[in-house]
């Protein structure tokens, strides 16, 4: 039999099961980028925000794993597609577009995105934070905006793909122009106001008084449970 060696000095990797039956939009694979904001670490304030949908530019064929344009939806791959310039607007959808399309095609019940998908993504993001919490440094003024990606299978089950420390804040489509600048602006408003509220040692954060909270949903508010 064969043998292999292990280099203990190499970084760790995670092997995930590939979702071979993704839900398709007009025959194309898609994923969803949402945001996880750790607005404060002392006290903890962790927020969720909806993002947008990224569609591949090539039709999905499960038996052709060599076609990266069909299987990988991220911009770094899709922008190399020969038709990217003319198709890029249709490659990025809003969450509302997703819901309207699924309803029109009879692929999901009315309100599924808001009532089922988003709450599921929120629960997963909360679990991601709780898993990482023991390893995170706590210091006043620390914050991080993370990009969290999900894929949905043909049975309408969402799966976590990855959590990105680089949330890709550049814009290349109309939908991203609607989503990303507002996300950055509101993130800074929330983070700065949270920092100002905790000037005094032991002071908590009054979430209701924070500017920029309209697009966020609270996952963890340590001040409210203290």
From TrEMBL:
<dbReference type="Pfam" id="PF03133">
    <property type="entry name" value="TTL"/>
</dbReference>
<dbReference type="InterPro" id="IPR004344">
    <property type="entry name" value="TTL/TTLL_fam"/>
</dbReference>
<dbReference type="InterPro" id="IPR027752">
    <property type="entry name" value="TTLL10"/>
</dbReference>
<protein>
    <recommendedName>
        <fullName>Tubulin--tyrosine ligase-like protein 9</fullName>
    </recommendedName>
</protein>
<dbReference type="GO" id="GO:0070737">
    <property type="term" value="F:protein-glycine ligase activity, elongating"/>
</dbReference>
